[in-house]
Design a protein that fits this description.
Heat Shock Protein 90, 3 domains, about 50% helix, about 15% strand
């Protein structure tokens, strides 16, 4: 016999494939259409960019990546090019294409970049947006000092991004002196932006707005999680708060450096430590959510975070070979975290754990971003954030979605627990009251039996004396004191009987007519607590509905029957005709949200393979519950043949 292939087993692979294709497609679109390295405007050649013949097109945005002159190991000023001395430059590209030689270098390395521009003779004011340069820089336009952050000659760091206006026309030169730390020089440049002052300023404002909104949303998410964590002692909320704070600590510095110059330390160390700690916290959160013992993994990642912090604080004294080694190690660290997230998601999906699909989508998307960042390193967004920041945002959104669902489930479970605990306490008090009444009647019976002996002796004495008139008089006086009220019982199931007697008494006090028929044996289909939850919830809802009814006959008719095949509970009650039903749920009249009692009934009935129907009529609300009897659970049969509709 050929075994049928289970296509369900392919679902995780198909999900991973679909998410990967979507993520890679989005990244490729960003790379080709939102990338400063892919600009179509003309680029410098051999250190010269001629815009004099382009007219209005000259004021359009362009990113100066290629063809810069570079003088290694020298800090040259305008006077050095005015002396007429011939110098042989190296022509290089800026941004992530750029290379500053650091073979065996420790500490600071220096160099000068030069570009000659030929601008049109116009009143148009141009601008050059300079990106962050680690660790200090000085820029000249012609002979004037246009920008200075830190001191390249004295190796005093200062990092900032800024817009430099260019009011000169004709042929001008741009000189940029750079002093860089050998261990972090790879991030020396993003491509400078050239264009009209209005266009450059507008683009800068948009980017700052995007970064500010991202930071604000991250802070809001972290503060909300902290508030919830404090209010309900939610451990995962504290972890997510720290996760968001680490994201802010990693991504906020470009926003700050747009307005204030910063030194390398301690900000560079804080940024790197925040990034690695953020990935560490993501793994801790995932382990906690899916009950994974990841103590060794967490310890290794924590040690790596401490190592990164230590190396960052001693960045000025680290040999380049160590910096290169640590750079490659950080890339493997990112991939290891990404694949770990995928493995945990796969395991959760196989074990059919909650929110496993959300985790898998998040992990695959994050891995795709890391992979494409390595495959397409030359990416600097025109608008928006770099690939790595986008990957971190994916982690925040994914974890926020998982934790939100987790918190909602926890809140629902807590609400159900509180309600069910209250119901169990009421059921216990019902049973205690029922027990007290039975004991009182037993004691009354014992008293009557004790007193009966004395009454019989007196009557016997009067009879033997022939005093029949006194015998009659004594009997007339004795009869009222011997009146005995039979205890009310509806079923042999003691717990269920206590619930029925409680609500019958409550209905009687409210002037509501009740009719109860309960042919349920002592050994019912359901455990006593779950049977009482069903009947108690239905009777409580019926009683509350009748109490809200202001006109018409108020009544509750309940029939519980168990035979060899099924247990049936049929309930009809009057109500005012107003019902709140939304989204597939009956809404509670006592609180906002769905009615917990009805959902508890449905959950128990579903657990035992039964059916529950709730039918609101014009003025009568009907409930039908049928639960099948499995082998060995039938117990004693109920009286009469069971039919539906409340008739025998």
């Amino acid at each position: 016999m050929i075994k049928q292939f289970d296509f369900k087993s392919l679902r995780p692979i198909l999900v991973m494939l679909a998410v990967s294709i979507f993520s890679v497609t989005v990244i490729l679109v960003l790379y080709f259409y939102n990338n400063r390295y892919m600009g179509e405007a003309g680029q410098p050649s051999c250190g010269i960019l001629d815009l004099s013949g382009e007219g209005e097109a000259a004021s359009g945005l362009r990113w100066l990546v290629k063809g810069w002159e570079y003088y290694e190991g020298e800090l040259l000023g305008p006077e050095d090019f005015a002396d007429g001395k011939s110098r042989e430059p190296e022509f290089v590209n800026l941004g992530k294409y750029g290379v500053m030689s650091r073979e065996g270098a420790i500490g600071w390395i220096r160099g000068t970049f030069r570009l000659r521009l030929v601008l049109p003779e116009t009143e148009q004011v141009f601008a050059l947006e300079m990106p962050e340069i680690s660790a200090s820089s000085r820029m000249y336009i012609q002979d004037r000092l246009a920008m200075e952050w830190g001191d390249p000659q004295e190796s005093r760091p200062g990092i900032r991004s800024a817009i430099v206006p260019i009011r000169e026309t004709g042929e001008i030169q741009i000189l940029i002196q750079v002093a860089d730390l050998a261990s972090i020089h790879a991030w020396m440049f993003a491509p400078p932006t050239l264009g009209s002052y209005e266009a450059v300023a507008r683009l800068r404002e948009v980017n700052l707005y995007v970064k500010a909104v991202t930071m604000v949303l991250a802070c809001v998410a972290s503060l909300l999680s902290l508030q919830l964590a404090i209010q309900i002692r939610w451990w995962r909320g504290f972890l997510f708060f720290l996760f968001c704070q680490c994201f802010v600590g990693y991504a906020v510095w470009p926003l700050i450096r747009s307005g204030y110059p910063l030194e390398i330390l301690p900000w560079h160390a804080i940024s790197r430590f925040s990034f690695f700690s953020m990935l560490w916290l993501a793994v801790i959160l995932e382990n906690d959510l899916y009950r994974i013992r990841g103590g060794v993994v967490s310890a290794v990642m924590g040690g790596f975070c401490i190592l990164s912090l230590t190396l960052s604080f001693f960045v000025e004294y680290i040999p380049s070979v160590v910096a290169d080694w640590f750079h490659y190690l950080t890339e493997w660290y990112k991939f290891a975290v990404a694949f770990y997230l995928i493995l945990v998601a796969e395991r959760a999906l196989v074990e059919e754990m909650e929110r496993a699909k959300t985790l898998l989508v998040m992990a695959v998307a994050f891995t795709s971003v890391i992979f494409m960042e390595q495959l397409l390193p030359y990416y600097e967004p025109v608008i928006g954030e770099p690939f790595m920041v986008l990957g971190c945002i994916i982690l925040i959104v994914g974890l926020l979605s998982i934790l939100w669902q987790d918190m909602v489930d926890a809140y629902r479970s807590r609400a159900v627990f509180v309600v069910e605990t209250g119901r169990m306490n009421r059921q216990l008090s019902m049973q205690q009251e029922h027990y007290r009444q039975l004991n009182a009647r037993i004691e009354e019976t014992r008293r009557l039996r004790h007193d009966m002996r004395h009454h019989i002796r007196i009557l016997n004495t009067l009879y033997q004396e022939g005093n029949t008139e006194q015998v009659g008089e004594y009997l007339r006086k004795l009869t009222p004191s011997m009146a005995f009220k039979e205890p009310v019982t509806h079923t042999d199931n003691y717990a269920l009987d206590a619930v029925l007697c409680h609500y019958e008494a409550a209905a009687a006090r409210a002037g509501i007519e009740t009719e109860i028929s309960a042919g349920v044996p002592e050994r019912a289909v359901l455990p006593g607590d779950e049977l009482c939850v069903i009947v108690g919830n239905l009777m409580e809802n019926a009683l509350e509905a009748c109490e809200r009814q202001e006109e018409g006959k108020r009544f509750i008719h309940l029939k519980c029957i168990q035979d060899s095949q099924r247990l049936a509970i049929l309930l009809d009650n009057s109500y005012n005709g107003q019902i709140s039903y939304k989204g597939g749920y009956f809404r509670s009249s006592k609180r906002t949200g769905m009615g917990i009692g009805v959902e508890s009934v449905k959950a128990i009935v579903k657990k035992y393979g039964g059916l529950a129907e709730f039918e609101p009529g014009d003025r009568i609300f009907k409930v039908s519950v049928v639960i099948p009897v499995t082998s060995g659970e039938s117990g004693a049969k109920g009286e009469g043949k069971m039919t539906f509709g409340g008739k025998k």
